[in-house]
Amino acid sequence: MADPYTILGVDRSATEKDIKSAYRKLAKELHPDRNKDNPRATERFGQVTQAYDFLSDKDKRAQFDRGEIDGDGNPAAPFGFGRGGGQGGFRHDSYEGFAGGQPDGGPDLSDLFEGLFGGRGGGAGGRRGPPPRGGNVPYRLVVPFTDAATREAQRITLRDGKTIDLKLPAGVEHGQQVRLSGKGDPGPGGPGDAIVTIEIAAHPFFERDGDNIRVDVPITLDEAVGGARVKVPTVDGAVMLTIAPGTTGGKTLRLKGKGFSRKDGERGDQLVTLQIDLPADDADLKRRLEGWHDTRNPRARLGI
Description:
Distance between the termini: 73 Å
Low-confidence stretches: 79-125
Oligomer: single chain
Number of helices: 8
Mean pLDDT: 83
CATH architecture of the domain at 207-291: Sandwich
Helix content: 10-25%
CATH class of the domain at 207-291: Mainly Beta
């Protein structure tokens, strides 16, 4: 990758806010969904996303600014190696006077070279480790509550512009990470992985309780007294629920298999708590109840 600052069109002194703003502007302009017939835009989108991820990592950005790593996160060439033997680099004749790879009476540099080049003195025959894999790439995936409950596949756009459909794991949890093998940065030893952190979005009226889902459903007074069949929302769509005559407010009914998936692939339940919703000021209701009093003490179990 070229200079990430250049790719995003920002200065090296840019703040995190400046970098995020530049990325959002370019990502909106270059997103593959808006440029289906423009492969160049898709390629640029991947470069912009990679540059943003790079500069969002404070450690990588600091190392890059100090010249310790390049735009791909690889170590910069030590002592100017690879620069044609120019100023600051090693020249072949700089080894004159060395005996066995070190100057007479001078310090032993073999350990230094071994650490840099993977062999004693960097000479032929030195033992080298396997070539490094590419870096892992982090992704953040916000999943709608209902999709998480039903394990609806989620589409992810990778930094190279390609898209994949991710099947959510059974028993998915907020903050859980999923590893996509070989979907990270390229490297001489093969590509790294993509690490996807799942965030389950909150819902306006559903609430997760372990593998179950809770929801409060209001019913009218006549539905509670006389019984009724009412429509109730679930993550799979609305269903009809039977309310028995004389149902009290706060009663919880159970809908089997309408909760979150468990790790074994089965699903929890939905717990529906009924709330009797009385009109604020209904003259007809007051007239009908006039002269009637409930002589029970519904708070007796509380000791009052």
